[in-house]
Amino acid sequence: MLSIKNLKVSVEDKEILNGINLDIKPGEVHAIMGPNGSGKSTLAHVLAGRETYEVTDGDINFEGKDLLEMEVDERAHEGIFLAFQYPVEIPGVTNANFLKTTINSIRKAKGEEELNALQMLKLLKEKVQLVDFDEKLLHRSLNDGFSGGEKKRNEMLQMAVLEPKLAVLDETDSGLDIDALKVVANAVNKLRTPDRAFIIVTHYQRLLNYIVPDFVHILYQGRIVKSGDKSLALRLEEEGYDWIKEEAASIA
Amino acid sequence: MSDSMKTLEAHTQSEYKYGFTSDIEMDALPKGLNEDVIRRISAKKNEPEFMLEFRLKAYRHWLTMTEPHWPNVNYPPIDYQDIIYYAAPKKRPQLNSLDEADPELIRTFERLGIPLNEQKVMAGVVAVDAVFDSVSVKTTFKETLAELGIIFCSFSEAVQDHPELVKKYLGTVVPHNDNYFAALNSAVFSDGSFCYIPKGVKCPMELSTYFRINAANTGQFERTLVIADEGSTVSYLEGCTAPQRDENQLHAAVVELIAMDDAQIKYSTVQNWYPGDKDGKGGIYNFVTKRGLCEGKRSKISWTQVETGSSITWKYPSCVLKGDYSIGEFYSVAVTNNRQQADTGTKMIHLGKNTSSTIISKGISAGRSDNSYRGLVKVAKKAENARNFSQCDSMLMGDRCGAHTFPYLEVDNNTAKVEHEATTSKIGEDQLYYCQQRGLSEEDAISMIVNGFVKEVINELPMEFAVEAQKLLAISLEGSVG
């Protein structure tokens, strides 16, 4: 589904990612872990197409298409979803209206018929239940005055509504208490299907107690320095990142 | 500049859709202004003596005044002798029959989407008074309205047919010596709309005036007078466009509203004069005085404006709350783009007891434009229990534009409650990126964010115009995010 080859990325001439290779198949959940500043969030935003990042080398292939040639919205139409670490606020635009606009933009791009108000209402009702969302928040302005937890839940609701092929969660667990964390994990688990893949970017292991990944990759200094299964995340939890840094230093 | 800032710019640089000119034979006075010109305007319109006196009094006062330069706008000096003060289509529709009108004139209004033929209008939703350059060319639904005793006609007709009403109310809200541009207007105004709603009548349709400047080098000086008698209500809308020309053209209008006991006037404006090109060449100077007098108890005047056009806008639709328990409202969206400048806001003058006012102002600046809100809330000594709520929000698109807020407050009665809130926000790359990540195109994202920002004001517009206004906002800002 997704194949990243030798990806190098700079921001203002500073190299952040320095040769990433990663293959993801449908249905898989990949966790990307690493110390602060290792390039985790950069990877998430490069997948989404944020233009502040300059790709200097490598390719990204998504379902047989060259992702790097596509605009941000085109990637969304192809089924890439990014759950933001810091979701933006848009005053005056209700959550429900935002969801309606986004889903219909994507449907239109795919050549599907737009949903009418009734179909939309039904869909929203179903998804609100699925991710355990407070329905009242649908009628408030998008993320405006939402608590940190509410914003993250809202990201999960959007994910549920837009039904992406590949969902990238950028530190969705940061700043969440244990209850909110469970809500996020629950949403992901309910949306896990054989044809949908996830990339979970996180600093801590604790989210992975609830979302069990198929693969764990450790990103350090712009490279994936180690890959493994969920036991790798547990080792990080116990020993921290120091051994990774040492191993990386001895190789270099 | 990042790519998304460039798109923002590109998005706000769309073409002005109404920039065409019409080739119509005109009857115009030569350029320049003096007492003789004023006498000729008055004579052409076959005016009674009191009108000529009003004009001359205003002109003589205007000569003693100097152009105001306190607004936060810049423009080269205006040569008042280089302006044509009167221009009218030679072939004017007679007796309200369109048969004899210049077909080009009819076409012009059709291209603008203004129906002058009543049969073509859906079941009488809106009555229109169409003003072309200096004169009104057609008022629709006059007869239907007349059955209810409503007078809706051009100002010139009102002077002929209802001189007593004109004489009684003209200049009572905006006096001939009020300010420089109002004095100029009082001296030379050539037409405009007149409306009188009799006691207890609720006007069954929207009344609207549509202004079109066509001739080159002319100024447009129209005057609107709306009187709502006891217990009546009326909703009034004005729209305006002008051809694309390299020279600046002056538009100095005056609008006076009077609401008696329990009367309500809602006055909405969608202003889309030619704004000049992206380098600031050409465009209309929109220097307008609009004021409403809540004369009666429990009367209400509500101004709603969507200002997207003009190279310079200078206007402060105001309410004088004289009647006890009267209410004044001002809802405004002002959009400036490219090199446009706007200095706009309102004055709420609380004179009566238990009066209240609301001000909601939304300024959007893009390109290299400057957008200022200027507002005065004044509570007089005897105005017990006055209430005001003001909210002024500014939105910036890009980093080369400016937003300014100048709120003035004069409170002489300590029972007054006055609240003011202000915010400034920026359409950020992060907002656009977020929306695009959810599948919206950049244009749709901008239009959604902007419409969210102005929602409270757009909601105040009559339904059919709200949709128009939203489209207009999207067009005005096309190419501004980038």
Quick structural gist:
Chain A is α/β, with parallel strands linked by helices.
Could you list some keywords that capture this structure?
heterodimer; A: 252 residues; alpha/beta; Rossmann fold; 4-stranded antiparallel sheet; 8 helices; 37% helix; globular; B: 482 residues; 10-stranded mixed sheet; 11 helices
Q: Care to describe what's here?
A:
The complex is a heterodimer of chains A (252) and B (482). The mean pLDDT of chain A is 92. In chain A, strand 1 (2-11) and strand 2 (14-24) form a beta hairpin. In chain A, helix 5 packs parallel to helix 6 (178-191). Chain A has a domain at 2-89 and 164-251: 3-Layer(aba) Sandwich (Rossmann fold). Chain A is built from 8 helices and 12 strands. The longest helix of chain A is centred in the middle third of the chain and has 15 residues, at 95-109. Chain A is globular. Chain A has 252 residues and is an alpha/beta fold. With 482 residues, chain B is α/β, with parallel strands linked by helices. Helix content of chain B is 23%, strand content 35%. Chain B contains 11 helices and 23 strands. Chain B has helices at residues 3-11, 35-44, 49-63, 103-111, 142-146, 155-161, 163-169, 180-188, 429-437, 442-458, 463-476; strands spanning 26-28, 87-89, 126-132, 135-139, 151-154, 193-197, 206-212, 223-228, 233-241, 248-251, 254-259, 264-271, 283-294, 300-307, 312-315, 318-321, 327-336, 341-350, 356-365, 370-379, 387-397, 402-411, 417-427. In chain B, strand 3 and strand 4 (135-139) form a beta hairpin. Chain B is globular, with a radius of gyration of 22 Å. The A-B interface holds A 48-52, 71-73, 75-77, 81-82, 84, 87-88, 90-93, 98, 101-103, 105-106, 109, 141, 158, 162 and B 2-4, 425, 428-431, 433-442, 444, 448-449, 451-456.
